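Data card: per-record layout.
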Amino acid sequence: MNYKAIHNDPLTQTVQNQKGALVMEHQVISSNMVRTRDFVIGTIIALVMGTLFTLLSSGMSLIVTFVPGIIFSWLMYAWLFVKKVELPTSSAFLPLFFALLTVQFIHFAEEFTTKFDTKFPLLYGGMPYSDTFFVTFNMIAYAVFALACIVAFTKNIRFLLFPALFFIMYGAIGNAISHTWWSLYLRSYFPGLITAQIFWIAGPFVLYKLVGKGKVVFTVIILFALVLIPLLTIFASPDAMSSYALSLS
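The structure for this 249-residue chain is written out next.
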């Protein structure tokens, strides 16, 4: 039997080319998803972030805000993994992410000039964050979010998607919920309220562009609010609230 002839047969070559194309297509699709390795490392990153925020928290301030944000970010990350959701391309997603991050810089400016770093921890039984700590912490966080998102989408290192997802989930959506609720609950302006309103639209929009399911985005935001608002209320310090109210009178 002339194996060389069979190998060079046009039909055989067509089948081989089709198989090669399918393999390449599978590799491309799998690189656009959160794989098992990514999910495991992303989960470890979530645990490290949760521990770090707990240790850095003044009073309960970061524990009642950032930690629930990490939990819901992880649930969203787990959903992407279980459902094998194909992520958007870097050209489609990165401009939106960085537009959202731009809003965060404006939001930070409002917080800093209205003493959020003092009033926020006082509200949860802590001591004010120093200006140095507040600025350094936020600038490092923004750098991490930016670099993680770039690498996740340009180098297909998908476990770095988690820090970027946390920024969308709490940095945007969580900020919208928290700042609005604080102002409603205290019946007065709370630092960061004005620019946080932009996140009501920008946050869900960017999350939708990432996951591609409007119903999922709506559901997770509602559940997040139902968990976050009670925590923000239950753990607020009555003494701090009274002092804050007196300072406004």
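Known properties of this structure: The chain has two domains: 1-31, 35-248. The chain is about 80% helix and 0% strand.

See the next section for split statistics.
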